[in-house]
Amino acid sequence: MSLRLTTLLVLCCTGLWFEPVQAQAGYKVTEGNKLDPQTYHGYVLYRNWCARCHGTFAQGLAGPNLANSLNQSSKEEFMQILFKGKKGRSGVMPGFQDNPQIVNGREQLYSYLRARADNAIGPVPPEQGPK
User: Fold this and answer.
1) Tens digits of per-residue pLDDT, 63-75?
2) Distance CA 90, CA 107 (A)
């Protein structure tokens, strides 16, 4: 077994893997569903503007599974679709470039969805953790 694979297995099995991934992605999740205040704000935006089409846990409904989509696209692509919208097979996602809540909270929204895509949050509603 290679040193790189051994290191990866140790990090994953000990739980040490998640903290650097979370810090790099801009979110912090504790106890499986407690979010830092900024990421929790992203959840609130998601719940208010996105969940009706993309599902309670970003698993997809009328719109695609965003957790999977984030693992297949870049942050820049996500932001472009968020602002300009997109035509899909089952409908059209509107662009949110004129929505000040989304424009001002786009980084927090991305952090929340990144946490979902990284499986840092289980299939449960998140809560705001300690500040």
Assistant:
1) 999 989 999 999 9
2) 27
